[in-house]
Amino acid sequence: MRYMVIVKASQDTENGVMPTEAELAEMGAYNEELVKAGVMLAGEGLHPSSKGARVRFDENGRSTVIDGPFAETKELVAGFWILEVSSREEVVEWVRKAPFRGGEVEIRQVSSAEDFGDAYTPELREQEDRLRATVEAQHGG
Known about the structure:
By secondary structure, the chain is α+β, with helices and mostly antiparallel strands. 33% of the residues lie in helices and 26% in strands. The protein has two domains: 2-110, 2-Layer Sandwich (Alpha-Beta Plaits), CATH 3.30.70; 113-141, no CATH class. InterPro entries: Dimeric_a/b-barrel, YCII.
């Protein structure tokens, strides 16, 4: 099972305060532990919302672009991991080892093909497989 681990933003991350060398080293050691265990698929930090944008769609599919920053810091994301583990309990145990002091991390299971049932036809599955292969070829993944 794949899980997205969502690191919530703080006033510091939204103000562009970068981690110290010691914090980067601590996070690097944690990431290395995840990689050595074979559970880390991806992980990145994000720039503050002041450098971002949102695209809002109305019921007719028209879109509006809203430039950051965004007001509700507690609702924003500062970074993420994608972990592949055998259970929700396992991902929780990994996250509990993260080198954070304060803040909050959200854990969400990533949908798989089986979650979509009959709506995910063989043709759609073939298309998805083809797109994933193309992305891997393009980015050396």
